[in-house]
Amino acid sequence: MTVPRRNHAPREPTFPYRGRVINEPVAPESSAPDSTDPERTPRRRAALIYNPVKLEADELRPVLEAAEAEAGWEPSLWLETTEEDPGAGQAAEALAEGADVVIAAGGDGTVRVVAEALRGSGVPLALLPSGTGNLLARNLDLTLDDAETSLRTALSGTDRPIDMALIEIRGDDGRTRRHAYLVMAGLGLDAKMLANTDDDLKAKAGWLAYVKAIGLALRDKNQLRLRYRLDGKGVRSMRAHTLMIGNCGSLPANILLLPDAAVDDGEFDIVVLRPEGFIGWVQIMTKIFWENGVLRRTTAGRRLMGLTKEVRALNYLKGRELVVSLSRAEQIQLDGDPFGEAKSFRTWVDPSSLLVRVPADD
């Protein structure tokens, strides 16, 4: 595929709140209602978009009602996702209804779809983690198993601008699909693993369901053969087992895959896995689990890391736009969900384009 050369990635509407928490009070205009008169003060309203497979609405309703009463908010708008519409239509309805915050209650797929619809709107996204991975919540250090705390944050927290990544995927049929993602996109091991995962087993066993799928993926000896251009520089060719592009760096089980990734730095981090046999996998596991997972967390450990050598089996890159052309169509995943096959793709960062509600003391 021939990709037209660009000097810069196309700019989408973004927010001017790069890299800071938005919590400054806005001075009211002279025509604003008297804030001392409770009857004239406009009350805020949330919209809750929830996946009924992941969440029991009857159990959550009294918890949300208590949070609404504590914060002085109107009763929330409840919007249920469906197989046909996993969140985009519901998010559009929430915006049309003038919601002050949209709460996504579901797995990573629900969060990704709702966030994509809220991108550039100025309406913050709040998270009520209800899935297996909860990738964005983990990377933002948000509460995972406490609905009361999550809902209190949704109504009384502050807003943090974060980056989103956009991607245009072209398949063998020549059609291009455009999506957004929050955490990671990947080709190779992780995409094949997700394609091989049994959904019923995942629902019952959580992340243990991926063990069998990883074994099947590791037995696949086919390498990715690709050409890529990073930030408009020269085209390069490589062979790799796995390619992952991350807006965030952490995975479940406290695995730090991309140690330098930050959700609000205007760039994404890229990791390329190129193991050559068993020794190559040992080098990769040492880097990810020992150096990233243990040594990097202490000052003494970071000094020891300075003495270790880089290995060919694992390489890191960083940039704002990546264009990739593959020798054949390969499985691709976004935020832990399979997205079919890609023959080529272009992905870029949209800086500070999404507001996420975080605890006020952050």
TrEMBL record:
Keywords recorded for this protein, A-Z: Kinase, Transferase
A molecular-function term among this protein's GO annotations: kinase activity
One of the Pfam families matching this protein, by short name: YegS_C
Residue numbers spanned by region Disordered = 1-45
Instruction: Identify the residues that the record assigns to the DAGKc domain, covering every copy.
Output: 41-171
Tell me the protein's name: Diacylglycerol kinase family protein
What PROSITE patterns does the entry give? DAGK
